[in-house]
């Protein structure tokens, strides 16, 4: 029997998924786009104000500051998570029993909710009753202020995000590493390649698509670290950790400037989409060519 | 102490989390229609009292009332979205001032002026300074439903005594105490600086002591240059000066009020003083009952500034919380009846006193003296009755956008990242 493109499943089959995406994905974006041209406190009906919200954006120091902090956080998270997830993922791909047990334990943070993680770490990092107070006693440090310190607070968030999401990316690398054909390693071994050389010349190139996929997830995901930051520092001290999504939340649900918050939201949508398009373009992920000989 | 506290902090965080989840899923919207919906914040003790008022009302009235409660953080958002929708409450809890003004500007609140005039006895039972917080543009839109909550200075009696100090009455006393306590290895003052509103208490008292209540009134009225008034700048300098003197220690920016660590620092003697709302007494009773029962918790009014233009016994805080009536309500008559019959009734007032509240009601001194925590209750009542002005917490009095900007900028002042002039300029732009 001949199969052709015309015999692929019809439109009816995708209708439920399209409807769902349209209703909960596209429609809100369109509404937010409309709201960004209005002034609305949530009470009464939105008042059309034209481009007022948009023209206020460039002059808002917290938008510029928030953008810088968001990008810094994204870069730091990517730079810490990728190498560690790659290393641990490849390590845990081995079939030894110890590795299986250790990685099972390591996957635990994946089961916890982000809010629970943030609250527990907040308690652990309490300056007087938490870990920093102990560490300060042991090492005679000048202060035990972590979440209230402008730079340390950001590093603490990077670390907690790392702790939470590393297992997920490890899982991606573990699965991908197990797919690498054994024959490649055997051939390299015959040629006298060392373990490190095999990792660098076979494993890493073979995992190229996984690295890109995991990076895209991290970059786009970094726009959603919002709740971690809200619960840990609420953007403080001062503005030190006020990422753009948090600024949006504060404008919308604390200051009740829904219109202005919508403008920031649109900016975030554009930013996230642009970032993932850029990664896909630059890395050639969109061509999706197989790297494997004869596969 | 510190270890058990640490465990408790984690425990209470997880509890808070599960509560968050439970309420997130649990509270369904009111059905509207045939019942009078009363919305309030979750507070087990107070809710029970309101519930009793509702029962009395339901026996006498055709339209039965129903209490719906929310957790603090979600409440404002929920109300904002519900008002003007078919799921709106008939009677709703609010903070008066700017918080209430948002709703009156959208014509969402029933004018109660006539009701108060028709019931002079009801009107006159409230302390005028507290009732006035619900007055917007000459009309009354709310009635006080809870006790007064002035901000007062708490102190740890044994810690001050060991250092040979008296509770500070003037700024000079305060400065001396800060120096002496630091030599003793005690953090002079707890400041949960992870949250801007705790710093606001210092700032707003400073402004009042330096320049009197008119300075803030000008800010609320939106007068040009009000944020740049000399009294505002001087108050900000006084705040930064306290930080530089080491009054708050070196890690105050990560101390949190909500998780109880600030209150624990006062109770365990790591800190000597704590400027906080009158609700702190319930916090201490719950977290460190021994501390209160051993009579180690002291309280006094905010120190007096020599040469300041403000009255020495003026106070700052939350005058009360208020019940207002939704103007779209189909049961406005029943709602008004409920407010007038309940909020100043003898049962309601004495129930409030029993749970440690100090209702803003005239002539209840005797009742307070017989209550469980008579010393604190009479102190608070005296403070409010003697105060020439009771300035509402600025973050409730201002509109939400300005309040949000102010709290962030205030954190920057306490961090030393902004100068008073930069603060004033930034706030002028929000006007």
Automatic annotation (TrEMBL), chain A:
It is a multi-pass membrane protein. It is found in: Cell membrane. It comes from the Bacteria. Gene3D superfamilies: MetI-like. PROSITE patterns: ABC_TM1. Its main location: membrane. The chain crosses the membrane at residues 12-37, 67-88, 100-121, 152-173, 258-280. The keyword Calcium does not apply. Keywords: Cell membrane, Membrane, Transmembrane, Transmembrane helix, Transport. It holds the Pfam family BPD_transp_1. Residues 67-279 form the ABC transmembrane type-1 domain. PANTHER family: ABC TRANSPORTER PERMEASE PROTEIN, INNER MEMBRANE ABC TRANSPORTER PERMEASE PROTEIN YCJO. Belongs to the binding-protein-dependent transport system permease family. This is Sugar ABC transporter permease.
TrEMBL record, chain B:
Transmembrane segments: none annotated. Signal peptide: none annotated. InterPro entries: Bact_solute-bd_prot1 (IPR050490), SBP (IPR006059). This is Extracellular solute-binding protein. It comes from Nocardiopsis exhalans.
């Amino acid at each position: 029997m001949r199969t052709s493109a015309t015999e692929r499943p019809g439109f009816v089959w995708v209708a439920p998924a399209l409807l769902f995406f349209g209703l909960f994905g596209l429609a809100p974006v369109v509404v937010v786009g409309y709201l960004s041209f209005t002034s609305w406190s949530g009470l009464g009906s939105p008042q059309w104000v034209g481009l007022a919200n948009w023209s206020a954006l460039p002059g808002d120091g917290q938008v510029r500051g928030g953008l810088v902090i968001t990008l810094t956080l994204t870069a730091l998270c990517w730079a810490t998570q990728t190498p560690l997830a790659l290393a641990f993922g490849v390590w845990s791909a081995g079939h030894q029993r110890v590795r299986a047990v250790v990685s099972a334990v390591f996957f635990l943070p994946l089961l916890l909710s982000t809010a629970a993680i943030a609250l527990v770490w907040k308690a652990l990092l309490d300056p007087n009753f938490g870990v920093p107070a102990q560490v300060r006693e042991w090492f005679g440090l000048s202060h035990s202020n972590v979440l209230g310190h402008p730079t340390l607070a950001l590093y603490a968030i990077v670390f907690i995000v790392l702790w939470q999401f590393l297992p997920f990316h490890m899982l991606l690398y573990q699965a991908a590493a197990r797919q690498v054909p054994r024959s490649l390693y055997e051939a390299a071994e015959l040629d006298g390649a060392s373990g490190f050389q095999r990792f660098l010349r076979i494993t890493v190139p073979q995992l190229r698509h996984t690295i890109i996929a995991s990076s895209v997830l991290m970059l786009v995901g970094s726009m959603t670290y919002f709740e971690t930051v809200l619960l840990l520092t609420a953007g403080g001290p001062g503005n030190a950790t006020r990422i753009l999504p948090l600024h949006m939340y504060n404008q919308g649900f604390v200051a009740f400037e829904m219109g202005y918050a919508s403008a920031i939201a649109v900016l975030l949508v554009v930013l996230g989409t642009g970032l993932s398009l850029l990664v896909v373009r630059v890395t050639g992920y969109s061509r999706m060519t197989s790297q494997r000989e004869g596969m | 102490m510190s270890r058990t506290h640490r465990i408790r902090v984690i425990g209470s965080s997880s509890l808070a989390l599960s509560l968050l989840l439970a309420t997130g899923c649990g509270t369904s919207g009111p059905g509207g229609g045939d019942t009078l919906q009363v919305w309030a914040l979750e507070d087990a003790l107070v809710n029970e009292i309101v519930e009793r008022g509702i029962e009395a009302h339901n026996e006498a009235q055709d339209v039965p009332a129903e209490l719906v409660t929310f957790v603090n953080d979600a409440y404002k958002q929920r109300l904002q979205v519900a008002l003007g929708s078919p799921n709106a409450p008939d009677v709703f809890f609010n903070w008066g001032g700017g918080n209430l003004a948002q709703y009156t500007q959208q014509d969402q609140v029933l004018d109660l002026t006539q009701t108060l005039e028709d019931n002079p006895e009801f009107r006159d039972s409230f302390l005028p300074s507290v009732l006035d917080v619900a007055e917007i543009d000459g009309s009354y839109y709310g009635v006080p439903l809870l006790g007064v909550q002035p901000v007062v200075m708490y102190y740890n009696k044994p810690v001050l005594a060991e250092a040979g100090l008296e509770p500070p009455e003037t700024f000079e006393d305060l400065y001396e105490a800060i120096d002496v306590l630091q030599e003793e290895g005690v953090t002079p003052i707890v400041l949960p600086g992870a949250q801007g509103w705790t710093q606001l208490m210092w700032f707003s008292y400073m402004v009042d002591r330096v320049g009197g209540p008119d300075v803030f009134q000008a800010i609320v009225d939106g007068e040009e240059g009000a944020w740049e008034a000399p009294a505002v700048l001087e108050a900000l300098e006084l705040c930064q000066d306290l930080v530089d003197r080491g009054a708050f220690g070196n890690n105050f920016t990560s101390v949190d009020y909500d998780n109880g660590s600030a209150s624990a620092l006062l109770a365990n003697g790591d800190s000597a003083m704590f400027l906080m709302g009158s609700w702190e007494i319930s916090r201490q009773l719950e977290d460190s009952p021994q501390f209160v029962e051993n009579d180690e918790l002291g309280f006094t009014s905010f120190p007096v500034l020599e040469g300041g233009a403000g009255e020495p016994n003026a106070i700052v805080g939350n005058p009360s919380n208020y019940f207002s009536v939704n103007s779209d309500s189909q049961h406005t008559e029943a709602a008004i009846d409920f407010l007038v019959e309940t909020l100043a009734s003898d049962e309601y007032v004495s129930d409030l006193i029993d749970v440690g509240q100090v209702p803003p009601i005239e002539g209840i001194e005797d009742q307070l003296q017989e209550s469980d925590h008579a010393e604190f209750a009479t102190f608070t009542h005296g403070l409010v009755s003697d105060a020439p002005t009771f300035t509402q917490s600025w973050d409730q009095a201002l509109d939400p956008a300005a309040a949000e900007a102010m709290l962030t900028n205030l954190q920057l002042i306490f961090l030393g990242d902004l100068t008073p002039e930069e603060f004033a300029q930034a706030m002028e732009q929000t006007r």
